[in-house]
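Structure request: Antirepressor AbbA, Metabacillus arenae.
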Amino acid sequence: MCITCEHLTEEEKEMLVGLLLDNQYALELLSSEINDIENGNKKVNQRQYQKLLTLYDRIRFEMN
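Returned structure:
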């Protein structure tokens, strides 16, 4: 079963993001994604990679 963001209400999206942030899962997901990119397992453009790094830093340093 595949659920995309299009099928979630704004309240459900906010709740999910809150849970991910509260439990440090968002940081773990970002770290894994960045590692996959850096190891060549995933391809993204430079802009997307920089956005992931920025988001990782914001969550790690500003929200803890």
